[in-house]
Amino acid sequence: MSRRLMVQGGRRCGRFKRLLPLLQYAQGNGWSVLYTNGGHLRFTKPERPIIHTSSTPSDWRAVHNALALLARADRMTVVELSHGVAIYHG
């Protein structure tokens, strides 16, 4: 069972300080952020791939890479074809 993560007032303390830019980007661009049972973060948005990342990033690159994944997914264009769905990266 997943739990929804809320960023209230734009500020969190402790271990979330490093994740704050990631959580603010997700919240500002319509992503839902959930905790998985394993303690990771799951970012979901309709018609976009699900993105998972650690809730305790080991260094600054983890947050940077997760931000890049969310931004890349936001630029995707989904086109429905008669024989299936095609995803184009824009």
Question: Mind sketching the topology for me?
Answer:
Blueprint: E1 3-4, H1 20-28, E2 32-35, E3 40-44, E4 51-54, H2 60-74, E5 76-81, E6 84-89
Antiparallel strand pairs: 1-2, 2-3, 3-4, 5-6
Helix pairs in contact: 1-2
- Helical segment tally? 2
Helix content: 25-40%
Q: What's the rounded overall pLDDT mean?
A: 80
Number of domains: 1
Largest sheet: 4 strands, antiparallel
**What integer value in Å does the Rg equal?**
14 Å
DSSP summary, beta strand count: 6
Class by alpha and beta content:
alpha+beta
Name the strands of the widest sheet in spatial order: 1-2-3-4
Distance between the terminal alpha carbons, to the nearest Å? 34 Å
Shape: elongated
- Kindly estimate the percentage of residues that lie in beta strands according to DSSP: 25-35%
Order of helices and strands: EHEEEHEE
Short synopsis of the structure:
With 90 residues, the chain is an alpha+beta fold.
Describe the model.
- It is a single chain.
- The protein is of the alpha+beta class.
- The chain has one domain (3-89).
- 27% of the residues lie in helices and 30% in strands.
- The protein has helices at residues 20-28, 60-74; strands at 3-4, 32-35, 40-44, 51-54, 76-81, 84-89.
- The protein has a four-stranded antiparallel sheet, with helices on one face. It has a two-stranded antiparallel ribbon with strand order 5-6.
- α1 runs parallel beside α2.
